[in-house]
Amino acid sequence: MPTQSKIILYTCSIAIVVGNIIFGKSIVSDQSVLWHIKSGEWMVANRAIPHFDPFLSWGENLFWLSDQWLSDIILYFLTHSGGLLLLGIFTELILVFTFFGIPFLLSQKVTDNPLISVVVALICASNASIQWFCRPFVFGVLLFNLTYLIAWTNYGRQKAGRNIYFLPFIFCLWANLHPSFMLGLFVCGVFLLCSLDYKNILASIKAKREYFAVGILSIGATLINPYGYKLYVHALELASGSFITSLFQEWMALNFQSNTFIPFGLTMLLILVVLYLARKRTLSAPEIICFLVFLIESVLHIRYILFFVITLVVPLARLLIEIPSPIKLQRSPSQHNVLVRGALICFSVVFIYLVVHTPSRKFSYHDSYPLKAIEHVASLDTDGKLLNNVNWGGIVTYFLYPKHKAFLDDRASMIGEEMYKKFFAFYHMDANWEDLVKEFDFDIMLLEPKVPATTFLRTRSDWKISYEDKQAVVFVRH
Asked: Do residues 281 and 322 touch, judged by C-beta distance below 8 A?
């Protein structure tokens, strides 16, 4: 890579990290990461992987396939060693490398113009901003992008490159970090199958035997996990479950009316413009297939936008190259390049100064967390059963376990549809709302102030308000 491109890559990466630390949300803005950290703590303390749920008040006989167990342990060690500060810095570096660094490197393999590469990489990072926080998915997307990079660089080559031999190790690690490893297998399969000569299929397969051997080893490597082939069944059920996909926002369809998805909408508009302006539109079959498949999946389920961005890099870079432009950024050292380097370095210095002198909420708990209500529950003498809002399951587990166990959290594939229906019937005061209370006999309820269940409990003589603020209300049984 040319020296100028390296300077631009490093400088922009620093600027993104520092800028996001200053202006970004809390690294734990999604409370789900908290039960992941607690799960890692449980595994380290017990030196075992849980096969039955230890965190829900009713889940002692509930089978739990912990499909992100290694991620949980990593997140726990980071938090235990350096608190939210270390967890946040680690996450920032992973996210910037995943959504800016790898797209930049991939784009540089298409064009030697660093200006085009940085534009493409910034577009990828802006699309990924919808989930720029800490969750085990950061490991899954990182490995997906690396897998795509390896598959793309080896496409069309008769002899496999050295980097392809990393794939079995990547997939072995991936299967224990996050269940998205099947997407990586799909991408590798697309590139391999598209590289075959179907007019002379036997000779083509023989010529690609090295690739097939690595593919078989990679599939076998994914079976090196605590659950074996059951992990495949679990991942397929997770992706195809209609109730789960309707319950959580990350599985819902794209909503173009939301400001959150403005980058995605602008990216689609940009693609149409460059398609019109480009003199040539030369794309390989696997590039087109991966782009279209993940584009469709992104529209159906917004979480796939994170995987879509790497498939966007090559098509967008190729099209931008073909747009007639009088502006050229020279690779050879010149006065212009010196000015570019100086400007980027000054830009980084300004950002570093800002991060030192500007208070940040990046490494603190999110403003929406009902921390004072949680402290109040912890101070109560009773250790009776607790009913909590689903969105606070991770918070309850992180701060109150083992004295109080959460009733529900977002592990929908484990908990099942029936329990969520019972909870929401009570939460919204729908038909048969009383079934939940009769079945579990709660002593404490931690709910939001302005929901039907809270309004109803205010009128009951058998429940009293023990604590209340703008975020939460704590009810205890008389």
From this structure: yes
Beta-strand relationship, 444-447 and 386-388: parallel
Q: What is the DSSP letter of 380?
A: S
| Segments in 302-416 forming alpha helices (H) | 305-321, 335-357, 371-379, 393-400, 412-415
Pick from 129, 400, 148: nearest CA to 267: 129
pLDDT classification of 181: cutoffs 50, 70, 90? very high
Residues in a beta bridge with 306: none
Asked whether the bond before 452 is cis by omega within 30 degrees of 0, the reply is no
- Using CA atoms, how far apart are residues 467 and 372, in angstroms rounded to an integer? 9
CA distance 179 to 412: 15
Residue pair 297/308 in contact (Cβ under 8 Å)? The answer is: yes
Q: What whole-number percentage of the chain has pLDDT above 90? A: 50
Q: Which amino acid is at 382?
A: T
Cα angle for residues 107, 110, 115 (degrees, 5° grid): 55
**252 to 255, 295, 301, 305: CA distances (angstroms):** 9, 14, 5, 12
The number of residues making up the chain comes to 478
The pair of structure tokens assigned to 70 is 């290694």
Q: Across residues 242-256, what is the average pLDDT?
A: 66
Cis-peptide, bond into residue 370, ω within 30° of zero? no
- pLDDT in the model for residue 339: 53
Residue type, 81: S
Buried b (16+ CB within 10 A) or exposed e, 273-282: ebeeebeeee
What's the pTM value of the predicted model, to 2 decimals? 0.89
Give the 3-state secondary structure of residue 158: coil
Helix axes 69-96, 137-154, angle to 10 degrees: 70
As a whole number of angstroms, the distance between CA 377 and CA 375 comes to 5
- Strands 473-477 and 444-447, by their bridges, are antiparallel
Q: pLDDT tens digit string along 389-414?
A: 989 999 999 999 999 999 999 888 88
CB 150 within 8 A of CB 168: no
**Alpha-carbon span 390 to 297, nearest angstrom:** 26
DSSP code at position 63: B
Give the whole-angstrom CA distance, residue 426 versus residue 452. Answer: 8
Question: Going by C-beta distance under 8 Å and a sequence separation of 6 or more, which residues neighbour residue 73?
Answer: 40, 43, 44
- The span from the CA of 33 to the CA of 195, in Å, is 40
pLDDT digits (tens, 9 = 90+) for 345-388: 655 565 555 555 555 667 888 888 999 999 999 999 888 899 99
Contact 134, 33 (CB under 8 A): yes
Using the 8-state DSSP alphabet, how is residue 304 labeled?
G
